[in-house]
Amino acid sequence: MAADVPGGATTGLSRAPRLMPVLAKGVLTGFGKHPRPDAALPRTRLVLPAVRIGLGRAATYARVCGYDATEPLPVTYPHILGFPLAARLMSARDFPLPMLGLVHTGIEITQYAPLHPTDTLELTVFAGALRAHHRGTEVVMTTEARRGGALVWHDRSTYLARHRASGGREPLPDGPSASPGSPGVRGAPGPLDSPGPSRARDLPVRARWRLPADLGRRHAAVSGDYNPIHLHALTARPLGFPRAIAHGMWTFARCAAEAVLPGTATLRISAEFRSPVLLPATVAYAYETTRSGGAFQLRGTPEGRARVHLEGRVETDV
Questions:
Q1: CA dihedral over 269, 305, 275, 59, signed as positive or negative
Q2: Residue 271: pLDDT band by 50, 70, 90 thresholds?
């Protein structure tokens, strides 16, 4: 089950924070911070007690991310609901890592029961741990969703602050970094994805997807993440990209829509973010069945040594 924060002070919220003002605040509060793995983490738990999703919002999100239906609720959607709370915690002055330039390196979601668009959920978000990484210091942000008091969904996301460090969990090759749940450039306003460690062997390709130039704008409308690196080439170029890039959480959600069989009640799905997807693009979705579920990749094309954008696995025995 989910880890707890011992001695954490609970702060109840009446509504979700607005994401873009929170990200802007995080840019300002990050100045002067010196990240290190032995720093003190704030023990605040943010709780949003009555989140109503609605059929319309769920259907729009499902359509943008490639889900066939909204029943049950897409397994990635509670992350979208909880991210403004996580951003508020990371933008606080007492949070030890600067929000500017954080890299979203990985995500693991566990679903203990099916969720539905008509559910009313209680969301809790807290910072679970700091740990050394080969490229700096990594924080684990935890989001929990409860229905009627029972834990039904759990998310651990890792975000990396790059700095000189020795030892750590695993190497992270140099490359572009980005925004909340999406690959971007160091200095972009928010947590970012980036290239990760060397990948496993290439999996068999099951589908190829043509991603339109306006995909970032479409996902921003359903996620609230209007970081300029996703919106247009004109707004992405000043931040180091020749074109707009896809949200990392869109790439994860699109793979989850394929990897999770309809009607799966309990599951664990995880991924490591590797490199950004420049829009427009054609990408290859690869999948292979395993004893406990499956493994998947999102790769660039053409085939061969094409760049891996995302690599993950799904397990149904949880």
A1: negative
A2: very high
**What is the Rg, in whole angstroms, of the alpha carbon atoms belonging to the chain?**
18
Per residue, the 3-state secondary structure of 8-66, as one string, reads CCEEECCCCCCHHHHHHHHHHHCCCCCCCCCCCCCCCEEEEEEEECCHHHHHHHHHHHC
Q: Which residues contact 255 (CB under 8 A, 6 or more apart)?
A: 271, 285, 296, 298, 310, 312
Q: For every residue of 260-306, which 3-state class applies, written as one string? A: CCCCCCCEEEEEEECCCCECCEEEEEEEEECCCEEEEEEEECCCCCC
> Whose structure tokens read 């200095």?
187
Confidence of residue 162 (pLDDT cuts 50, 70, 90): confident
- Are 286 and 200 within 8 A, CB to CB? no
pTM, two decimals, is 0.85
Q: pLDDT-based confidence at 91, cuts 50/70/90?
A: very high
Half-sphere exposure of 169 (CA within 13 A, CB side): 17
Structure token pair of residue 104: 């979203």
